[in-house]
Amino acid sequence: MKPVIEVHNMVKKFGDFVANDNLTFSVNQGEIFGFLGANGAGKTTAMKILCGLSKPSSGVIKVAGFDVYKQTEQIKRNIGYMSQRFSLYNDLTVRENFRFYGGIYGLSGRQIKDQTDKLLSRLGIIQSADKVLRDIPLGWKQKLAFSVAVMHKPTIVFLDEPTGGVDPVTRRQFWELIYESANEGITVFVTTHYMDEAEYCERVSIMVDGRIEALDSPDQLKKTYKSASMNEVFLKLARAPKVVI
Amino acid sequence: MHEIAVDIKNIRKSYSGTRVLNNISLQIFQGELFGFIGPDGAGKTSLFHILTSLLLPDNGSAVVAGYDTVKDYAQIRRIVGYMPGKFSLYQDLTVEENLKFFAGIFKTTIHENYALYKDIYGQIEPFRKRKAGQLSGGMKQKLALSCALVHKPQLLFLDEPTTGVDAVSRTEFWEMLKKLRDQGITIIVSTPYMDEAALCDRVALMDRGQLMAVDAPANIIRAFGQPLFAVKSDKMFPLPQALAVIEQTKTVYRSGEFVHYLNNQADFDPARIEDQLLKLGHAGITIRRIEPTIEDCFMLLMQNPLEVETN
Fold first, then answer.
1. pLDDT in tens, B282-302
2. Which among B168, B253, B255 has the least Cβ separation from residue A238?
3. Where in the sequence is the domain holding B164, given as residue range(s)?
4. Strand ranges (DSSP E) for B16-77?
5. Of A6, A12, A77, A87, which Cα lies nearest the Cα of A49?
6. What is residue B88's predicted lDDT score, i.e. its pLDDT?
7. Would you say the C-alpha torsion B99, B105, B109, B112 has a positive or negative sign?
8. Is B39 left (phi over 0), alpha (psi -120 to 50) or beta?
9. Do A8 and A170 form a contact (C-beta atoms < 8 A)?
10. Closest Cβ opposite residue A231 in set B138, B163, B167
11. Residues 130 to 149 of B: which have CB under 8 A from any A CB?
């Protein structure tokens, strides 16, 4: 298996505050990697660095084979990003949203059309392609946002709490999309507060106070921490965090 | 004991032709910890706005602590505490200034009801000179809750207080709510996290403006009324498809480390699950009959349950 994210001794400081304290891990091609941690543990900081939006204080980090210090533009071209908050444009149609993002990622008109048709057919909503996004039900928007994030066939897609507030049926349909993409070789790097979703990942890391406290498959983590569920593992590791002053 | 704190009758609300609340009727009792459970778009926030007199219903009525939400809006605003889903304190005021501001509005002081929120405010009190905009998420939440309690409300409305909050902080927040409930405050909370339903005395399951069930969590689980199986094997990715083709399959879906399986036949024999999986070369198979969770109940009650994939 080929690693597509390689992180060695990553440190990120803001003044005296150490947000990422010597992180070392790698993620393989086609893997579904869960990136968990309490609020304020340092997840967002690390994700920003991996997406080429922020520079680390020190460490050797490669994403899709590119260096996070010097090759951030190449990184951005080879990743997809989706979050619960930053999503699609409500006043554009579904197809226009695809065209806009496809254009940003430098796809040709032909490629945009092919990918739009393929992804919309896969979702089964090709008939709604010319509807304004505002009129699309909420659950569908999340699935569309995911499809847009992978339309340029990125090496890695970063998903930041992609299923927050989504109904339980749509949440599962969303994970089917994740599985399909991973099956096609796209690496999925995902954060979530739903602990049942941690079980859907091949490996999970849990950050506590800027450090990676545990990293393993869900099964192995449950064995190591003698827990019945990932929720229990998480509570054992992340409970009673230090007060940040 | 069962005095009615909130009486909702036939509430309807539409925004430009889209119905967000469809004929909602229910009662909440005094001293209850009551949860509205549902995803985005269920109508939870609109209902909270109606109950706190911030929005007029198109139809129906609601009585909160004996006051009509339309006629007696001024009284209602005096006796309820409301913590909106979006952080809505003054970011450029300090922690202490925010609390004083709310105390002033309600014509009370920080000290008068301090005992009620001491445990919560105490945790952020060391930062009382810090601007609210510079607090961490967890601290903002505690300040907002303190401000909602400063006038010792009879009822406390909390709109999605735990959304986007990690599992540890969520557990702590619910512990705070239980303590407030034990002090006699009626607490009405909304959440998209189904697992939080179990922490409420009673819940309303909501989806797309509809009330699907109102009851104690244990009763909702009892009403599920059909055998549910949790299945696991060495090949989890194709497992749902493998089970979907079993005759009379109702639904198959992933749930944590298992796949949950429901069959239409009341006398369904789970040995058929094993047969099917062995035939397809699965190993390490576990099949257990399990008690449904609130999430399983919610999915069963939803109008368009997960379609069984049979490709």
1. 999 999 999 999 999 999 999
2. B168
3. 4-221
4. 18-29, 33-37, 59-64, 67-68
5. A12
6. 82
7. negative
8. beta
9. no
10. B167
11. 136-138
List pLDDT tens digits, range B243-257.
999 999 999 999 988
pLDDT higher at B228 or B87? B228
Orientation angle between helical segments A230-238 and B167-182, nearest 10 degrees? 80
Same domain, B123 and B268: no
In this structure, are strands B33-37 and A3-14 parallel, antiparallel, or unpaired?
unpaired
| Interchain contact B307–A (C-beta under 8 A) | no
- pLDDT band at B166, cuts 50/70/90? confident
Domain end: B197, B221, B245, which one? B221
3-state secondary structure B226-275: CCEEEEECCCCCCHHHHHHCCCCEEEEEEECCEEEEEECCCCCCCHHHHH
Residue B45 DSSP label? H
Question: By three-state DSSP, how is residue A64 classified?
Answer: coil
Nearest residue to B149 (alpha-carbon basis) of B127, B119, B129, B123: B119
Are the CB atoms for B262 and B289 separated by under 8 Å?
A: no
DSSP state of B292: P
Beta strands in B145-248 (DSSP E): 155-159, 186-191, 202-207, 210-215, 228-232
> Do B182 and B288 belong together in one domain?
no
CATH number assigned to the domain comprising residue B159: 3.40.50.300
| CATH number of the CATH domain containing B244 | 3.30.70.2070
Any idea which residue has 């109904």 for tokens? Answer: A167
Task: Show Cβ contacts of residue B120 under 8 Å, excluding neighbours closer than 6 positions.
Answer: B142, B145, B146, B149, B176
Name the minimum distance, in Å, from the CA of B283 to any CA of chain A: 16
Phi-psi label, residue A112: left if phi above 0, alpha if psi -120 to 50, beta otherwise = alpha
Do B16 and B149 lie in one domain? The reply is yes
Q: Are strands A58-63 and A66-67 parallel, antiparallel or unpaired?
A: antiparallel
Instruction: Give the C-alpha separation, B32 to B189, whole Å.
Output: 11
Report all structural domains of chain A as residue ranges with CATH numbers, in order of start.
3-78+155-238 (3.40.50.300), 88-153 (no CATH)
Nearest to A168 among B170, B257, B299 (CB): B299
A219: chain B residues, CB-CB within 8 Å: 257
Residue B45 lies in a domain: yes
